[in-house]
Each structure stands twice: as C-alpha cells, then as structure tokens.
Design goal:
The protein is of the alpha/beta class. Helices cover about 40% and strands about 15% of the residues. Helix 2 (about 30-45) runs parallel beside helix 5. The structure holds 1,3,4-trihydroxy-5-OXO-cyclohexanecarboxylic acid.
Length: about 150
C-alpha cells in the first residue's frame, strides 16, 4: 500500500487566516501545510499538498491520487455541499478517504449540514480547527498500516 497521501483543499482556503478568522482561525494554509509535513514525517507518510478554487483541478488531483496514493485527506470547502463530480471522483478510488472541516459545519447554516463527500468518506472530522488535518493524517496512517498486515 502506497504511503503517499494527497491533502486536498477546496475554494477560498487559500485565504485561510485572513478570511472569517472568528470561524476559521488565524493560521494560514501554509501553516497547515508545514504542520502536515512535520507530522507526515513522523508517520512515515509522503504528502502531496494542494489547494484550488477550481473544481476540475481537485478532480484531476483525485485522479492522480488514484494512480499513486494510499489515501486522501480532503477539505472540499464549499464544494462539499455542491459537488457530485468530486463525489464521483472519490468513488473511483479504492483507498481510505478522510473528510476534514475546520469549522463545525453542523452548528452553522442548514445548507452546510449536507455533504456529498461524506457519502464516500471513511471518516469525517469537523470543528477541531486546523488540528483536524493532523487527526486525519493519523487515522490514514493507521488504516494504511493495518492494510499492510
Ligand atoms: C469548510 C466548511 C464549508 O462549509 C465552507 O464552505 C468552507 C470551509 C471548513 O473547513 O469548515 O469553505 O469546509
């Protein structure tokens, strides 16, 4: 099982730290990437970290992951609530998928309560701030380790 993990981030997450800090906190996406890389080293995972505001780019990265990765951590941001195309791309993958939301989407507007991606995700993490990415990587490492035996 590959130890390459794609960490994919959807629209507006490039503005993390500046955008609605009362909801998403003050850490930037570069901070999140740095923390993911440090943790990945400990977990012996290799990270491919990406962000895009374009749905097709996220789909293309999911297709790339399908070829070489052992799992995906994805914060699809607003595409969570709209994208059947991202759900379909994830359905084409046979490795673990962990969905992450920085905020607790269930405490927010009703339109954030439904996630297309959750229909495929093996686990969903929401409301732990950017720390959720670390939890997701730890879970993926465990699932990849278990597949090895
Ligand atoms: C988000 C929650 C989404 O509803 C929102 O559209 C985002 C970020 C989160 O990380 O909490 O952009 O995925």
């Amino acid at each position: 099982m590959s130890r390459i993990v794609f960490v994919l981030n959807g629209p507006n997450l490039n503005l993390l730290g500046k955008r609605q800090p009362d909801i998403y906190g003050h850490e930037t996406l570069a901070d999140v990437e740095r923390e993911c890389r440090a943790l990945a080293k400990k977990l012996k995972l290799e990270i491919r970290f990406h962000q895009s505001n374009r749905e097709y780019e996220i789909i293309d990265w999911i297709h790339a992951a399908r070829e070489e990765a052992g799992g995906i951590v994805i914060n699809p941001a607003a595409f969570t609530h709209t994208s059947v195309a991202i759900l379909d791309a994830l359905h084409a993958c046979d490795f673990p998928v962990i969905e992450v939301h920085i905020s607790n989407v269930h405490r927010r507007e009703p339109f954030r309560h439904h996630s297309y991606v959750s229909m495929r995700a093996d686990g969903v993490i929401a409301g732990f701030g950017t720390q959720g990415y670390g939890f997701a990587l730890e879970r993926l490492a465990r699932l990849i380790d278990e597949k090895k035996v």
